[in-house]
Amino acid sequence: MKANTVCWFDLPVISLNRAIKFYSNVLGEEIEVTKYDDFVFAVIPCKDGGVTGCLVETSEMRPSNDGILLYFSVDGRLDDALENVTKQGGKVLVEKEQIGPWGYRAIVLDSEGNKIALHTN
């Protein structure tokens, strides 16, 4: 099996605890604090051997709404996920829309100010 070309991401956050609460509720997955030596972060659960990454509170990077658009799978729960976006301090920028044969997406600002996409088939 060939490895994914994209293998990991670090998503910068201002408040790790707030971001964990946001992503846990929106993605419907439990996300927990992880520590390695002095480095504290939160790994987003990986589905079916796919790409994953972490939430990281660091002064080296800042959240952004004008850079790469990272897609998160919400696997059949897009409407539910969008409800949780606003409940958890985020903002819906582009409502649910069909993206051809690739399913549906919505674009949101997370609780930290990162622009992300939520995707479902």
TrEMBL record:
Coiled coil: none annotated. Pfam families: Glyoxalase (PF00903). Residues 5-121 form the VOC domain. InterPro entries: Anthracycline_SecMetBiosynth (IPR052164), Glyas_Bleomycin-R_OHBP_Dase (IPR029068), Glyas_Fos-R_dOase_dom (IPR004360), VOC_core (IPR037523). CDD domains: SgaA_N_like. It comes from the Bacteria. This is VOC family protein. It comes from Candidatus Cyrtobacter comes.
